[in-house]
Automatic annotation (TrEMBL):
Domain of life of the native organism: Eukaryota
Keywords assigned by UniProt, alphabetized: Cytoplasm, Nucleus
Domain Integrator complex subunit 7 helical bundle: 783-912
GO biological process: snRNA 3'-end processing
Pfam families per UniProt: INTS7_C_plants, INTS7_HB, INTS7_N
Organism of provenance: Zizania palustris
GO cellular component, one term: integrator complex
Start and end residues of each Integrator complex subunit 7-like C-terminal domain: 1052-1218
Domain (Integrator complex subunit 7 N-terminal) ranges: 66-480
Name listed for the protein in its UniProt record: Integrator complex subunit 7
Subcellular location: Cytoplasm; Nucleus
Main subcellular location of this protein, as a coarse class: cytoplasm
Length: 1222
């Protein structure tokens, strides 16, 4: 474990003193810069227990003592230094001031009054500067007092000094006094009242300087010690602005009062009415009032009746011809917040007013202001999306005189666009989308025309213009989610844009511009619109992040030839790529909407043809590859959907998308495009395409790309990464070819074929169903699978050999290891099926009855083996769960991908466990002892927690088998649950339904068999069921999560364990027959830096086994080894049970403790320093003498109830049981 702040306090104090004594000015300034974060760490660090302090050789009060010493040393330097050094000291302490400003009276950092024994010593040194210094020095001293407000707030002398300085003739000194007074007012109610009177006099005084008055007005929002003070300040400020306050100060006063009102719900209505008053009557303050209103609505879930007044007032002002254009822009921003913010308030508004609002927004589209047009379109789109989601059955709009002509239709429906008749609602949306695309095209015109100047020729990148274009695309994506037919309209319009842009790109910033569109000008929002829709967020974010996919391997200089010949990228190039990304994002969204993807296929197809015909250079990009694969998926989805409609509902097999024919079609498409990428030496795009193939299960193409990259960059520093991916992908394609061995001829043939680069890559007309036939039987393939498993381990070896620490590439090694574990279980399972098949044939051949002793022995062994396979798969599902929750920075798509793997393992475990009704074999199975950990109830409970709870059919079917206990801690979800909106997830869920229906049918047949001589036949039926379900299970592609290609340090914790008895300095030991008292120090790493997890609870489990006695005391390892994961799963399960008991304040004794394992649990208080202390008792009283190892695991729960595991980044401590002296 790294040294925590308390153990470093003395050294930090020495470093500060040594640095300040240096003759070199730079050294002194560097020491001052270093002291700020150290003081913050000392203030945030919790109190150190005596056992931990003793282990580090420090006293419990030592950190506070040295923090005070450092503060006193800073005050001494402030007194003797020049103004430059004084300013640096103040800047260093401003870091703590921000903490003080946030927490107010609750502040408990290094500058808190209880932490400093003699605050007067510090204050005297600062006051000496004020008494003897120049105006600049006095200003610095006053700001220093502000930073030390927690120490000086009760000092009468300092208070008097601040109040007297408010009337100083020096503007700098007066502003510094205002800053300090604001700091004091956060802590003291009585001082706030006195300061308020002083500020009122200062603002009203005719001779006050303007900058001082503005600073005084901006100090008012800092008087927030209590609600009573806030209300009093707001009342005084309102009186001043309605009184004789000069006009030049009214804007600042309005903003200050708005900031105050945002801190009190009671003041919200009052302040809004004040703003509306100025909007109606003060023309010079209309813009300021709108800005203040926009600020007050920012992120606040206010639902007040006053918003109806705001809505009506803004409508009237927008319709007014005298309303300035810039004010209209801000008015639309406010309306956008009301309708489309994080906490929309539309239900407070009378729906009869909505038609007026839509007409007003539409009128803004004809404005001469580009910004007003852009905002109006976004407001209109966001409003329609929000109303679609929240009020789907309300008749909301009847527009007469609207150019969009949206007559009344009954509500916003969630149904998709009819394939035959276009609804009135869709026509309305299509016209809005058309306007948005035309607006975007006009923006492109502006970008291109701006790019014609000399600066653009010197390769000046224009991120702000691209951001505006991307922002409009994001708004269009919101419409696509609610109205899938809008995607086709968008892509059809953008296809015309690409044609024009391709000509501009070829001509090299020519004078040409995009034509045949309405002239819309724009200056859209400065930020990409956030959306309340949970689906849009990740996709919109993925558009921004897609160019950084695999960011931690972006140092691979794969495209060296490109970068050397073209060091810059044109604006047009970026716009075209963003358009292709938009098309991909549309496809990804509509994949989650049933049936919608078919409506998009033709548009994607035409867009691809447009790129190939007009901008063929963009065919050799990852975006084009992705788009081609999207077209392939949508084409196959349409075929599957049409086939299902013709055949009707089938109970014989599940309706899935990823059929073998679809798989080989996608492989052939991917091979064609990646071959073209290599011919163009687009190595980086080829690598990204291979990552896509891994995420979609296209392992032949992935292995082809990784082999080419390994050959091309075999001597580079990342060659081990390519080799590892090659081993992994080669093993996976071997697994696929076990099912379809004849496919290899077609794939290799495609690899050797020289295709035309302008071929329609997405179009594969051949029907492969007849060629593939049924999947090959896997019986007898256990040897081949074992060989594949051993080769997959080569991928782990390649990663391990190139890591300097066990923490590096751990996710990748763990994921591959879990895959190898599944293959091991699969080989055993196939061995059981093969042995049963052979035994059945042998019994038939030798005419041995099913109920002979030999047959009974076979049945017993098979039943035991099946139970072990089911148990292994259940453990593997929990391992996938632990893998997912152990990486808190994982994206949603990767989390769902891993959750699907866990679901599939749980499903197969369920099928194996319930394929045979053991209750029908009392005579034959009784001698067969099933594993102690095996339980039908636990298997079905695990699957039940993973399925969709809204699917009442599958839940009731599961309950027909075994009674399922409800989760009595609904706030926590310990097992992962996949998002069933994706194609592969849907297929997995359909397979579950198919397997469950067949299993219930088989068990129904078994019930008709009387217990006796014919009951063993049910085992044969169960085996036949497993033989039929396994190929369907294996036909679904195995995919890699996107997170696999992100290489980051482990997300986990380190635990230091100390003997609570400080006298045991030699190590942790306890006499025989006594419990072990331990003090724990937990440090969670990479949690605060890389994630937004707001931890509310921290738990830890410690375990020791009496059977694992150590011969000698080994050194503690800080390596996180892959073979520890099995033990982590077991400890994590026990820790989850403890958390359940802790949350429901009861103890569940149903789970029996293991005889040789003792456990102890501890809770930690979360802290900003990432450090926590606790204690526990480990009951080792029954352990014999010797040395033992403590294993541990930790987890945390955030305030939203999400569960995260913290990987143990170091080993537990060793302890000894010595002979009792009694």
């Amino acid at each position: 474990m790294d040294k925590f702040p308390a153990a470093s306090a003395m050294q930090w104090s020495i470093d500060l003193d040594r640095g300040l004594r240096s003759r070199h000015r730079a050294t002194r300034l560097h020491a001052l810069d270093a002291v700020a974060p150290r003081l913050r760490d000392l203030g945030a660090s919790p109190a150190v227990p005596a056992a931990v302090a003793s282990a580090f050789g420090v006293l419990p009060a030592e950190p506070r003592l040295f923090a005070q010493t450092m503060l006193l040393r800073l005050a001494t330097e402030f007194r003797s230094a020049d103004n430059v050094v004084r300013a640096r000291i103040v800047r260093s302490l401003l870091i703590e001031y921000r903490e003080l400003a946030t927490k107010g009276r609750a502040y408990d950092g290094a500058l808190a009054r209880p932490r400093v024994a003699e605050p007067d010593q510090v204050l005297r040194r600062v006051k000496a500067v004020y008494d003897a210094g120049c105006p600049q020095a006095r200003a610095l001293a006053l700001r220093m007092f502000g930073c030390l407000a927690h120490l000086a707030v009760d000092s009468v002398h300092v208070r008097s000094l601040l109040l007297s300085s408010l009337s100083s003739s020096s503007a700098a000194e007066a502003k510094a006094a205002l800053f300090a007074a604001g700091c004091f007012c956060r802590l003291s109610e009585d001082f706030s009242c006195v300061t308020l009177e002083a500020l009122q006099r200062l603002i009203s005084l005719p001779g006050s300087e303007a900058e001082v008055v503005k600073a005084a007005i901006k100090t008012l929002p800092k008087l927030v010690c209590t609600l009573a003070v806030i209300h009093r300040v707001h009342e005084v400020g309102k009186q001043m602005i309605l009184g004789r306050l000069k006009d030049i100060f009214k804007a600042d006063m309005l903003m200050s009062l708005s900031i105050l009102a945002s801190k009190s719900v009671i003041l919200f209505d009052n302040q809004v009415e004040l703003l509306l008053l100025f909007m109606r009557h003060e023309s010079s303050l209309k813009t300021t009032s709108l800005k203040c209103l926009f600020f007050m609505l920012h992120g606040k879930p206010y639902h007040f009746p006053v918003l109806r007044t705001v809505f009506g007032t803004l409508l009237q002002l927008i319709d007014s011809d005298n309303f300035p254009l810039d004010c209209k822009s801000y008015a639309f921003r406010v309306l956008q917040k009301i309708f489309c913010g994080k906490a929309p308030s539309v239900h407070c508004i009378n729906t009869s007013e909505l038609p007026k609002f839509v007409l007003a927004v539409e009128s803004s589209l004809h404005s001469s202001s580009w910004e007003t047009q852009g905002i109006g379109l976004k407001v209109l789109a966001g409003t329609l999306c929000f109303l679609h989601q929240t009020k789907p059955h309300q008749n909301i709009i009847r527009l007469e005189g609207s150019s969009f002509t949206y007559s009344a239709c009954q509500g916003m429906t969630n149904s998709l666009l009819s394939t035959h008749v276009e609804s009135v609602e869709d026509k309305f949306v299509h016209k809005i989308v058309t306007s948005m695309v035309n607006h975007s095209i006009s923006l492109v015109n502006k970008v291109v025309s701006t790019g014609n100047n000399e600066e653009a020729r010197r390769h000046i990148y224009m991120p702000s213009e691209l951001k505006k274009y991307r922002s409009m695309l994001s708004s269009m994506l919101k419409l696509v989610v609610c109205y899938p037919s809008a995607a086709a309209v968008s892509l059809d319009k953008l296809r015309c844009l690409i044609k024009e842009l391709a000509q501009i790109d070829d001509s090299g910033y020519s004078e040409a511009s995009v034509s045949n569109v309405e002239s819309f000008q724009t200056n859209s929002a400065l930020e990409v619109l956030d959306t309340s829709n949970e689906i849009v967020k990740p996709v919109a974010a993925s558009m921004k992040a897609s160019s950084h996919m695999g960011t931690h391997f972006d140092k691979l200089k794969l495209d060296s030839t490109e970068s050397s010949s073209k060091k810059e990228v044109s604006i047009v190039h970026n716009i075209i790529l963003w358009t292709l990304k938009f098309a991909n994002a549309c496809h990804n969204m509509l994949c989650k909407t049933s049936g919608a993807i078919c409506n998009l296929h033709d548009s994607i197809k035409e867009l691809i043809e447009c790129v190939q015909q007009n901008a063929c250079q963009y065919c050799s990009t990852y975006e084009s590859f992705h788009l081609i694969m999207c077209a392939c998926i949508s084409l196959n989805a349409c075929k599957i959907q049409d086939g299902n409609q013709e055949s009707g509902d089938s109970t014989e097999q599940p309706d899935i998308l990823f059929t073998p024919s679809v798989w080989i079609t996608q492989e052939l498409c991917a091979i064609r495009v990646t071959k073209m990428l290599f011919s163009k030496q687009r190595y980086w795009d080829a690598y990204r395409s291979a990552m896509y193939c891994c995420r979609e299960g296209l392992w032949f193409t992935a292995s082809f790309v990784f082999r080419k990259l390994a050959d091309a960059f075999g001597s580079g520093s990342f060659s081990f990464w390519f080799k590892s991916l090659l081993f992994f992908s080669a093993g996976e394609i071997e697994m696929k070819l076990l099912l379809f061995p004849s496919v290899i001829i077609k794939l290799v043939g495609q690899l050797k074929t020289d295709d035309d680069l302008h071929e329609k890559f997405y179009c594969v007309e051949t029907d492969f169903d007849s060629t593939l036939g049924g999947s090959s039987k896997l019986h007898g393939s256990q040897t081949k699978i074992a060989d594949i498993r051993s080769r997959i381990f080569l991928a782990i070896d390649s990663l391990t050999s190139n890591t300097s620490s066990g923490h590096e590439l751990f996710f990748q090694r763990w994921f591959i290891n879990l895959r190898a574990s599944f293959l091991e279980i699969l080989a055993d399972f196939l061995g059981i099926l093969n042995a049963h098949c052979c035994a059945q044939k042998e019994s038939q051949h030798e005419e041995i009855g099913d109920h002979s002793s030999v047959a009974r022995e076979h049945n017993n062994s098979h039943s035991l083996a099946l139970a072990n396979c089911s148990l292994g798969l259940s453990d593997l599902a929990q391992s996938y769960d632990l893998l997912a929750v152990s990486h808190g920075d994982m994206d949603h798509q990767s989390f769902s991908s891993i959750a699907r793997l866990a679901f599939m393992c749980s499903l197969l475990s369920f099928c194996i466990a319930f394929s045979v009704d053991f209750s029908k074999f009392p005579s034959s199975v009784e001698p067969c002892r099933l594993p102690e950990k095996f339980s039908h109830a636990s298997v079905i409970q695990d699957l039940h927690e993973r399925v969709d709870r809204t699917d009442s059919q599958i839940v009731s079917q599961l309950q027909q088998l075994v009674h399922i206990a409800c989760n009595d801690v609904p706030s926590l979800q310990f097992v992962t649950r996949m998002d069933c909106s994706g194609f592969l997830e849907k297929d997995s869920y359909f397979l579950c339904k198919f397997a469950l229906a067949n299993l219930l049918r088989i068990r129904g047949d078994i019930k008709g068999i009387a217990t006796g001589e014919d009951t063993v036949s049910s085992l044969h039926g169960g085996m036949r069921f497993l033989s039929s379900i396994l190929p369907r299970f294996m036909e679904l592609p195995f995919v890699v999560p996107k997170y696999f290609f992100r290489v980051r340090p482990c997300f986990g914790a380190e635990l230091d364990i100390y003997d609570s008895n400080p006298a045991n300095r030699a190590g942790i030991s306890v006499p025989s027959g006594f419990q072990l008292s331990l003090t724990l120090c937990l440090q969670w790493k990479c949690v605060l830096e890389r994630t937004s997890i707001d931890i509310s609870k921290l738990y830890c489990i410690l375990a020791a086994s009496s059977t694992s006695c150590l011969d000698v005391v080994g050194t503690r390892s800080k390596e996180f080894e892959i073979d520890k994961t099995a033990g982590m799963v077991r400890l994590n399960r026990k820790l989850q049970q403890y958390m359940k008991d802790d949350l429901r304040k009861s103890s569940d004794k149903e789970e029996e403790e293991e005889r040789d394992l003792v456990t102890a649990f501890a809770r930690f208080e979360p802290s900003d320093s990432g450090l926590g202390f606790s204690s526990c008792l480990l009951n080792v009283s029954a352990f014999p003498q010797g040395w033992y190892k403590i294993k541990w695991h930790a987890c945390c729960v955030d305030k939203g109830g999400a569960y995260y595991s913290l990987l143990p980044l170091n080993d537990g401590a060793a302890f000894s049981i010595r002979k009792s002296e009694l």
